[in-house]
Structure formats: C-alpha cells, structure tokens
Design goal:
The complex is a heterotrimer of chains A (about 230), B (about 230) and C (about 375). By secondary structure, chain A is mainly α. Chain A contains ten helices and no strands. The radius of gyration of chain A is 21 Å and the shape is elongated. The model of chain C has no long low-confidence stretch (mean pLDDT about 85). The chains are: A mainly alpha (about 230), B mainly alpha (about 230), C alpha/beta (about 375). The complex binds adenosine-5'-triphosphate (ATP) and magnesium ion. Chain A: Belongs to the binding-protein-dependent transport system permease family.
Chain lengths: ~230, ~230, ~375
C-alpha cells in the first residue's frame, strides 16, 4: 500500500491541470482563508463587545455550543439543497462552523484578563476604547489566536467534507478515490489534507509567537512555573 | 409542496421511521463508545505524563498532531493502518477514540497538575501506594477540570460521526447523504435535529454525572469552564 | 479643603448597602486611613472618590468642587490609584507602565520616559529594573512600581487600596517606611485603605474606622482611636493590646536615664558582680557582660550576651518599655541620635512615668 501511495505521488499526471495537486491545494487554501476572513470579521467584534462589556456572555457560550454540535455534513448538504450552488453552500457552512471557536476564543481571552489590571487601567483614567485596545486585547491575544487556530483546523477538515456537494479542493481526492476504490488516491488526499492542516497550524503558531507581547509570554511562563512547582 | 408536507410524508413511511431509529442507535454507539474509550486512554496517557515528566513533551506534541488531522482523512487511512476493512465501523470508533484522547490529554495533565501537592503528600504519608493514590485521590480531584473537556469531546464526537457516512458508516450521517442524493430536505433536517437533541441530552447527562462524581465541589465555587476547542 | 464626603450612601443594585450616610472630611496633605473589617465598604468609599463607583446619594467634593462636574476619565488621570497586587500591565515594561498616565495626558514620549525613570529612583528601584516586565519582578518590587505609576501624574491626591497586603510582613514594613519617607517629601493627600489596624496606626495622620454596613464608627487621630474607642466595636477592632500600642503616642521625656557600668570591646576588664554594658570605640552598645563572668585577656564581641532592642531618646515611650523588657539585664539601653549609649532605663521606671502621665493611657 505504501507502494500505491508512492506511485500516486510520483505520477506526474497527478501534479498537473485542474485535478493536479497544486490546483487542489490552492483551492483548499482558498476556501479556508475566505471563510476564515469572513468568520473573523463576524466573530471578533461580537466577542470583543461581549467580553469587554460582559453583556450576553451566557447567550454567546450557549449558542456557540449549539453551533458546535451541528453536524458538518448535514449543514453542508442542507445548504446545498437550499442554494443549489456548491461554492455558496460550502462557504456558508464553513463560516458557520468557524465562528464558534473564534467567538469563544475572543470572549474567553478578554474574560481571562486579570480584573485588577483592567481596574488599574480604569483608575488611571483610560477610556473604554483605550482600555480595550491598549490593555485587554494585547493581554487576551494568546487565547484569541488559540481560537483562530482551532477554527483553521476545523476549516481544513470541513472543507474536505464539503467536497461531497461538489466542491473542489483536497476533499476531491478522498471522495473520488473512495468512489472508484483507488486506494493510492484516497491515502494521498488524506496525507495532503493532514499536511495542509499541520503546516497552517505551524504558520499560525509562528504568527502567534510574533504577535504576543513579550511581557504576556513571560507572565504566562511564570504562572506555569508556579503551578508545576 | 411545503416543507412540512414533505416532512409529514417522509415520517409517515414505516421504512423511513425504521431507518431513523436504526441510524440513531448506530449514532449513539459510534459516538459514545469512543468517548468512553478515549477518556480511559487519555487518563492512561495522562498518568504516564504525570509520573514520567520526560514523556510530557512527546505526549503533547503527538496529541496536538492527532487533533490536527482532519476527520475524513483519519477515517480513510485507519483501515490501512490497522488492517480493517474500509466499511468496518471499527474505523470510526478508532478514529473518534483517538480524537477524544487527543482532546483530553491536556486537560488531564492540567487537572493532575492542579491537585495541591499537600494533598498528594499527605496521601503518601498515610501510606497510599502510587497507583492507588492516583485512582482514589488524584483522579477524583481532577474530575471538575476533566469534565469540561469531556463535554466538549462528546459534542464534537456526536457531530463528527456523521462524516463517517462518506465511508459508509455514519449513523445519522446516512440521512444526509440520502437526502442529498434524492434532493430531499426531510431526512437532512431530521438528521440535524436528532444530532442536536442527542448532543444536548448527552451533555445534560454528563453535567449530572459530574455532579454525582464530585459532591464536595457543590459547596465550593464552580470551576471556570475550559475554553472549548 | 481636601476631600469631603457629604452624606454619601451607596446601595448596589442587588440591595447591598455598602456605605451608609458617610460624612468625612479628609485634610489636604495628610494620610487618612480607612480601616475596618472585610466588606465594610472601604473599597467602595475609596472608589467613589475617582468615580469608579457612583454614589446612590450624597456628593463628594474635591478641592471644593463636586467631582460629578468633571469628566470621569480626566478626573482619574489627576488622581493616583494603587491597588493590591499593583495591577501592573503585564505586556508593558516597568518604565512604560509608569509612563501610562503622562502619555494618556498627552506628554511627549521622551518626557514621559524621563519622568518614569526619575520615579523609579524615587521609589527606590535601580534603573535597570525599568526595562523589565512585571513578571520579572518580586511582589515588593511590583508594589513599588505600582506606587511609582500612581505618582507619575504628579497629582496631589493618591488613593491606595490595600496596596501592601499581598507582600510578606518584612517587605510590607519596608514599603510602609518608604511611603512615610515619600510623604514627608511630597506632602500628598493620601487616602489609604487597609483592614490591618497596625498599618492604619502606623501610617495614618487620621484613621476612619468603618463598621460592616458601611457606617462610620469613629474618626480621629490614631492615638484617639486607640485610647478612646467610642464603643465596643471599635475597641474590639483595634484589638487587645491597644493599651500597649497606645504607648506609641506618649512622649518619654520624664523617664530617668541612669548610668550603667560599661566596658570597652578590646580592653581587658576585671571581674565584677554586676551587669556591664559593652560598647565599641564609638560608644555604641554591642552587648552585655553577665555578672561574675571572667574574661581571659582582651574582650571580644563573641563573648557577649546579645543585647535587647535599643531606645532612642526622644521617641515614644513604647520603645523604652520594649528596650527594658527585651534586655537580658532587664536594663533598656538608651542611645542618642548618633547611636551612642547614654544610659539605661528599667521597666519599673517606665511604668511609673506612664501611670503618672497626665494624658493617661487607654482609660
Ligand atoms: N459590584 C458590587 N455589587 C454588589 N455588591 C457589592 C459590589 N461591590 C461590593 N459589594 C458589596 O458591598 C460591600 C462592601 O464592599 P467593599 O468592597 O467596599 O468592602 P471592603 O471594605 O473593601 O472589603 P475588603 O476588606 O474585603 O476589601 C460588601 O458587602 C460587598 O459584598
Ligand atoms: Mg476592599
């Protein structure tokens, strides 16, 4: 079976044209990034509002859990029957599934900011917006980005499932291979999808490291040391 | 024909009703067995990481990696990894067990870390051997933190099972592929609704179970829920 | 003028009355301590001064002006605020933490950084600490940075909510000394919240004791509160040994200082059947030589019995009593401002003075 996989990867036909690896990878990436951007634009402001004001937290957590329980395949097939367009159905489905982790991360990040720090900022005369952008957001950043990373993992996985309704991307290899029982193609699709997820996660981990202020990292490291000591 | 007429027609067929009940039963089995197995596996691995700190790094990297692999990819490669048939339901059980364990390893480790050293020291001083101390002192104290992770894992399992329909073993997911192929809303809507209800019911049972397992925790302040993955 | 609470009541939405009809005038340039048991409304009272809590009724005047007439954020920039655990911003260096308010008030960056560096010195921290992050400081250092940050606005008013309660007793005492030293230079109007009566007595020019339910029980100088508690609640709160602590406010001018035989460290003393105080060349006390002890050759410090606490002439009588009680010879060593031994006192003599003192103690 290793042989089949190697054969598939070394077959130059699989690297060219509309069904070639570069095209499929870029398509997959495209769906992921497009829905990530849309989901972020929707979820982050809501998360910031709820986290900053503390209003609607229960509703937010509750609805997040309901969306999380939505079965991907059911959602995407339902949307496809509704819109009869695989791109629209898939993107909406992906956005819906990416919103809860980003929302939860943003909200939880702001919740986790030490109350006394926010209190001190207020006591020094920072206005609401200054407090949010200069204090709460930088400190919350690790958890917010953790939510984004989770969303990306789910998007890569879900985009593969969404291929069922006729979407391009790496899911095609998995489903088309299954249909004709071409084991090499299926395994190649699985490997490529997993690799894409891992690479994107690594990229985001690097971004996270670059964006999170040094003092916040030090504080986290200090807290961990205290726990393990 | 309105959607409700369609739904009425769909549900009036004894065949369809039978299919719904069968797939629901299969769904429960496919989601809950891995939940139990995954919890056990995570506790074993957590115990390993707790007693043997050097293994910790490896354990965390591997569990992150497993969690990164998209569900569909995992479903299709498992048969070749463990030598089962493509349509065997074991594949889904194994894959979801791995996800559950990967999701829970970190909470287990964190929860074990959070057991106050003084408690462990006094248990040791009273003559508990390590294995017994782990099972009767450390593990119960870890339940509140663990419970939050188990709830997330259960919701995620219940929604992921349906992806298995793409490889022919999918519980309620079969209703989605059915509805898609027949361009028929009813099975999809019924499938989504039952998935949500199942997730809700299991979640409530888990909340109850946690209360029963941690009578001492009720008097104290509630544990802050983990940020769900 | 200072700060004036006029009939202030605060009722939280859940019905808790945190402060009940509080009338209080806080003098300019003094440290006023709000003290009382947990939940008595200290924090609430303090936070009403910078409008982080709005009173349900009544008004607060700052320098004669109702604080409701000014914009809340601007008001706060003009009032220093220090809290427990300091509330430092973990993502900013120590210097930029201190520079927060100047920057908010529109100072240019360089000027703000320069000011921050000066303040670091004022609170007794070395310059290299400025580049560190809060997570890299000890609890006591963090608290100093918190004070520096509050001083940065150069505001006449400083609000401090249990600023020192999260550090260990030794560090706390150091921080308290530091605050008193700073106050003697800066002369701010400080409102200080604590639940520790010792801290209140030590720091306060005036002490306001609050009881649960947010009522003012007593307001006066520390000596008044210790010596004449208005009721059982205040008496109970200031504690059992308030009589002894009251000695902190009594002068010891009338205590007779007696001569004591001394021996010099490094000399060759002969035997004697009385206690002898060993002093060094500068005349500073080093310890005691017990009656009948024989010294072979030169007297070295290792042979001495450790002395008790020293009483500096001119300070409150509490120190004189403590010196007498802690001395192995039952003789309290009295020193002058330079630390030179000038004689001894006995507990008996100190107690005589206390009993005959016109102001009395804890009657
Ligand atoms: N935001 C709030 N909502 C409702 N009740 C509050 C709120 N803040 C404080 N309280 C209540 O008001 C009372 C006074 O609280 P406050 O924080 O002023 O007490 P404190 O004297 O500072 O206590 P401590 O010494 O414990 O800090 C308490 O009973 C407290 O529970
Ligand atoms: Mg308080």
């Amino acid at each position: 079976m290793i042989g089949e996989i190697i054969d598939w990867f070394t077959n130059s036909a699989n690297w060219q044209g509309e069904d070639g690896v570069p095209t499929r990878v870029l398509q997959h990436l495209g769906y992921v990034l497009l829905s990530l951007v849309i989901a972020t634009v929707i979820a982050v402001p809501i998360g910031l509002y709820v986290g900053h004001t503390g209003r609607g937290g229960v509703l937010l957590v509750g609805s997040g859990n309901v969306i999380r329980a939505l079965p991907t395949l059911g959602l995407v097939t339902f949307l496809f029957l509704l819109f009869t367009d695989s791109d629209i159905a898939a993107i909406i489905g992906l956005v819906v599934l990416a919103i809860p982790p980003i929302l939860a991360g943003t909200y939880a990040g702001l919740q986790a900011v030490d109350r006394s720090v926010v209190d001190a900022a207020e006591g020094m005369g920072m206005r609401g917006g200054q407090r949010l952008w200069q204090i709460e957001v930088p400190i919350a950043l690790p958890i917010v980005l953790g939510g984004v990373r989770n969303a990306v993992l789910q998007l890569v996985a879900t985009a593969a499932v969404a291929a069922y309704v006729g979407l391009g991307g790496l899911g095609r290899y998995l489903l088309d291979g299954l249909a004709i029982l071409d084991y090499g193609e299926v395994a190649a699709g699985a490997i490529l999808t997993a690799l894409l997820a891992i690479v994107l996660d690594l990229v985001l981990a690097t971004v996270q490291r670059a964006l999170v202020p040094r003092g916040v990292r030090l504080a986290e490291a200090g807290a961990k040391k205290e726990v393990s000591a | 024909m309105s959607f409700f007429d369609e739904l009425g027609q769909y549900l009036s067929s004894a065949n369809n009703r039978e299919q719904i009940v069968d797939t629901l039963a299969e769904h429960c089995y496919l989601a809950l067995l891995p939940l139990v197995l995954g919890i056990v596996l995570a506790i074993l691995v957590g115990w390993l990481g707790n007693t043997w700190p050097r293994a910790r790094g490896v354990i965390l990297v591997v569990s992150n990696l497993v969690y990164t692999v998209p569900s569909l990819a995992l479903f299709v490669v498992i048969p070749s990894l463990i030598g089962t048939k493509m349509l065997d339901s074991i594949n889904v059980v194994v894959a979801l067990t791995l996800y559950t364990a990967a999701l829970l390893v970190r909470p287990v480790l964190d929860a074990l870390d959070a057991v106050p050293p003084a408690v462990i020291a006094s248990a040791t001083a009273m003559g508990y051997r390590p294995a017994r101390r782990f099972l009767t002192v450390e593990l119960p104290l870890a339940v509140p933190v663990l419970a939050a992770g188990v709830r997330v894992a259960s919701v995620s399992n219940i929604s992921l099972v349906s992806v298995g329909a793409l490889i022919g073993v999918g519980g309620l997911g079969v209703l989605f592929t059915d509805g898609f192929q027949r361009e028929y809303f009813s099975p999809i809507v019924v499938g989504i609704a039952l998935t949500l209800v199942l997730a809700l019911v299991v979640d409530l049972l888990l909340v109850l179970l946690r209360r029963v397992l941690t009578p001492w925790d009720r008097a104290a302040a509630p544990v802050k829920e983990e940020v769900p993955a | 003028m200072g700060i004036e609470f006029r009939g202030i009541t605060k009722k939280y939405p859940d019905g808790t009355v945190a402060v009940d009809d509080l009338n209080l005038t806080i003098e300019d340039g003094t440290i006023t301590v709000l003290v009382g048991p947990s939940g008595c409304g200290k924090t609430t009272s303090l936070r009403m001064i910078n409008r982080m809590v709005e009173p349900t009724s009544g008004s607060i005047l700052l320098e004669g002006e109702d604080i409701r007439d000014s914009d809340a954020a601007l008001l706060r920039r003009g009032i220093g605020y220090v809290i427990q655990h300091a509330g430092l911003f973990p993502h900013r260096t120590v210097l930029s933490n201190i520079a927060t308010v100047p920057l908010l008030s529109g100072w240019d960056k360089n000027k703000a950084k320069k000011r921050a560096a000066e303040l670091l010195e004022v609170v007794g921290l070395p310059a290299e600490v400025g580049k560190r992050y809060p997570a890299q400081l000890s609890g006591g250092q963090q608290q100093r940075v918190g004070v520096a940050r509050a001083l940065a606005a150069d505001s006449p008013v400083l609000l401090m909510d249990e600023p020192f309660s999260a550090v260990d007793p030794v560090v706390r005492e150091g921080l308290q000394d530091e605050l008193l030293r700073l106050q003697s230079q800066l002369g701010k109007t400080i409102v200080f919240v604590t639940h520790d009566i010792d801290e209140a007595v030590r720091l306060g020019d005036r002490v306001a004791v609050l009881r649960v339910g947010g009522k003012l029980a007593q307001y006066g100088t520390p000596a008044e509160v210790l010596r004449q508690p208005v009721d059982d609640f205040v008496a109970g709160f200031v504690g059992k040994d308030r009589g002894y602590r009251g000695l902190s406010f009594l002068a010891a001018d009338d205590v007779l200082v007696e001569d004591v035989p001394t021996v010099r460290v490094g000399s060759k003393p002969e035997g004697s059947d009385g206690w002898r105080l060993a002093v060094n060349d500068a005349g500073e006390p080093r310890g005691w030589l017990a009656p009948g002890s024989v010294v072979d050759g030169e007297l070295v410090e290792g042979e001495l019995l450790a002395g008790g606490s020293l009483y500096q002439q001119g300070t409150p009588i509490r120190g004189a009593l403590d010196a007498a009680l802690s001395s192995p010879a039952s003789l309290g060593v009295v020193v002058d401002a330079d630390g030179k031994a000038i004689g001894v006192v006995t507990a008996r003599q100190v107690l005589d003075v206390i009993e005959n003192h016109p102001e009395g103690v804890a009657r």
